[in-house]
Amino acid sequence: MEISVVIPLLNEEESLQELHDWIANIMQSNHYLYEIIFIDDGSTDTSWKKIEDLSEKNTSVKGIRFQKNYGKSQALDAGFELAQGKVVITMDADLQDNPEEIPELYELIINENFDLISGWKKKRYDNVVAKNLPSKLFNAAARKTSGLKLHDFNCGLKAYKNEVIKSIKVSGEMHRYIPVLAKNEGYSKIGEKVVQHQARKYGETKFGMDRFINGFLDLITISFLSKFGKRPMHFFGLWGTFMFLFGTSVAFYIGAFKMYKVFNDIKTILVTDNPWFYIALTSMILGTLLFLSGFLGELIIKTKNNEKHYTIKEKLNF
Questions:
Q1: pLDDT of 168-225, one tens digit each?
Q2: Spans of all domains in the chain
Q3: Strands 61-66, 116-120: parallel, antiparallel or unpaired by DSSP?
Q4: CATH class belonging to 3-227
Q5: Phi, psi at 90, each rounded to 5°
Q6: 122, exposed or middle or buried, with CB in 10 Å at 0-12, 13-18, 19+?
Q7: How far apart are CA 158 and CA 92, in angstroms?
Q8: CB–CB of 114/189 below 8 Å?
Q9: 195 contacts: CB under 8 Å, gap ≥ 6
């Protein structure tokens, strides 16, 4: 198998036939051995029926149907787990990604040995205020935080070596940061290709402005995880120890100063009337909690298993 095309979707019944025909024509004209994996992320329209019909006519079409809507990250993760192609291409089902890009993406992975190629929609057909400007701010923050010089982290059109998608776990809403996840796993040859962006032909976008808020929150999460995800004690333990020692030092100083005044018959206040007593007590409690958080984090990492955060209702052709 040369190419797997992984397509997550939600309520895209109008575009599926056209998208399939377009991809199949590209694959056949280039004589690729391929599979198209549609992941129905809990659609409430006839999307799954369309996928069933397509699979009956073309055995290269495979389908995964979720029990309910879990999100794009979970859909991609399910597709990645089952993809068999040497090169895995992801794209959206709304016809805004152009399948004509597939041959060049494939060549970049196979012939130039890239681990991952991310699409860059340099010229967009989205609303400037609602999407373009927030997207530019989001991508600037992602570049600064991750160190990856990509212009469009959120572009759905990407190409990967099979070993890359088998090495990462996409959960939550981390689909925006798959290049960062790949980098964290040691894949350094990550490139970018300008791709054609097309105006939405059918239906409406499934993403609102909240995706940018979630995107920035996820960016903070993945930045933390990239540094401390596999060694939480290095963060929580360090700050916990520092705060506990600070609180202990302040408490010792308060106690010693109180003893000095008592032994020398100097008038003094009660320890509990000293505001520094409560600062010291709070620091010691917080320090202990942070240290325990790091310890528990280490235990969880060592004992966790790769649980799936989605339920597959049906599969086609697997």
A1: 988 877 888 899 889 988 999 999 999 988 777 776 665 555 666 666 666 676 666 6
A2: 3-227, 233-303
A3: unpaired
A4: alpha beta
A5: -110, 145
A6: exposed
A7: 10
A8: yes
A9: 97, 98, 101, 119, 120, 121, 155, 157
